[in-house]
Amino acid sequence: MNLETIPRQELASILRRMPKAELHIHIEGSLEPELIFALAQKNGVDLPYPSVEALRAAYAFTDLQSFLDIYYAGAGVLQTEEDFSAMAWSYLVRAKADNVVHTEIFFDPQTHTARGVPMAAVINGLDRAVQRGREELGLSASLILCFLRHLSEEDAFETLEQALPFRDKFIGVGLDSGERGNPPEKFAAVFGRCRELGLRLVAHAGEEGPAQYIRDALDLLHAERIDHGVRCLEDPELVTRLAAERVALTVCPLSNVKLAVFPELARHNLGRLLTEGIVATINSDDPAYFGGYLNDNYAATFAALPELGAREAYLLARNSFEASFVADDTRKKWIAALDSFFADCCAGR
Ligand SMILES: Nc1ncnc2[nH]cnc12
Ligand SMILES: [Zn+2]
Question: Which protein family is it in (predicted)?
């Protein structure tokens, strides 16, 4: 398969059509302003914005925390199992349109249980959409429970206890929210417990926090994948290690620009990560807030970085399957389908 033969003008269409997995999407970050308003009205929640337009206009973030303040307020409209199901279903329909064949979805239960929403409403609602996505869309999806790192480890332990009756409905745990001042070591014990339970482990690290947090997520939390991780390039030894151990990074380009991790997409380091041999992937993070879903991320990133071509498109899609938490035979089947898609592209079909 000679990917160099694919004409550049076909790249945009290939990026849209190629099968891919999404490994970094916060389901609360898929809540569009229209749905926020509809749920607020249904549930009698007061919003500090007069209209959908006014809410959208407030999406001008200066850093991660300025986004999180609005993101947690938006999530406050979710109350019933149906609300969680409706939110996840909307995302799955969008993902299907982007030719996503598998998605691993983060959710933040503490944002909801702290408001008195039962854990059962959160997990059963999300799971209902996941099952429906499998049946009606043929889309594979799994849930990953994230602990909020600005809260205590004790709170994380309590959350884990509340979630364990639903253990069959989520595959792993992650760590998100404000990174600065909340290092991985704060959650070493609860991740240790999750490891004993056989849960898959991921953690946000090296988004705003230093490269050391990536090392600590690997060594202290035993994270199998790093969410974001873009600051690894500040530590050449870490880069060598990530590449050698094939630790995947779930990179979110539009998010990184909206949250000022990079000043503009043309300055993003995704091309460099791939050149260094890192298993990087493209993801949407919080698509309703950052200006686009998965294909929007692919399109904008390839448009901004001339070093990315058909070879990188293939590599990124392949990495998304390689880094996913699915059974080996399923992964092989998806990679074979991807190979066949690109073989057709090379043959001009
Ligand atoms: N980009 C991000 N970083 C940390 N926590 C998050 N929660 C939702 N999006 C996040
Ligand atoms: Zn994230």
Answer: Belongs to the metallo-dependent hydrolases superfamily. Adenosine and AMP deaminases family. Adenine deaminase type 2 subfamily.
Three-state SS at 240: helix
pLDDT for the residue 349: 83
pLDDT tens digit string along 184-210? 999 999 999 999 999 999 999 999 999
| CATH class of the domain at 10-33+81-325 | alpha beta
pTM: 0.98
Is 168 annotated to bind a ligand? Reply is no
Residues 6 or more apart whose CB falls under 8 angstroms from that of 246 comprise: 279, 322
Average pLDDT over residues 294-300: 98
Q: Which residues contact 30 (CB under 8 A, 6 or more apart)?
A: 87, 88, 90, 91, 94, 286, 287, 288
Residue type, 309: G
Q: Share the mean pLDDT of the chain.
A: 97
**Which ligand number lies closest to the CA of residue 209?**
1
Placement of tokens 């066949």 in the chain: 340
Active site residues: 207
The residue type of 232 is C
> To test the ligand 1 pocket, which listed residue (63, 227, 259, 285) has its Cβ within 8 A of the most ligand atoms?
285
Q: What is the mean pLDDT of residues 279-294?
A: 98
Crossing angle (nearest 10°) for helices 33-43 and 81-97: 160
Residue 348: is its pLDDT beyond 90?
Answer: no
Q: How far is the CA of 132 from the centre of ligand 2 (A)?
A: 24
**Please, which pLDDT band fits residue 78 given cuts at 50, 70 and 90?**
very high
The tokens 């070493």 sit on which residue? 188
Residue 1 pLDDT more than 90? no
ipTM score for this prediction: 0.98
The CA distance from 127 to 36, in Å, is 20
DSSP string, 123-192: HHHHHHHHHHIIIII--EEEEEEEEETTS-HHHHHHHHHHHGGGGGG--EEEEES--TT--GGGGHHHHH
Q: Which atom of ligand 1 is nearest to the CA of 71?
A: 8
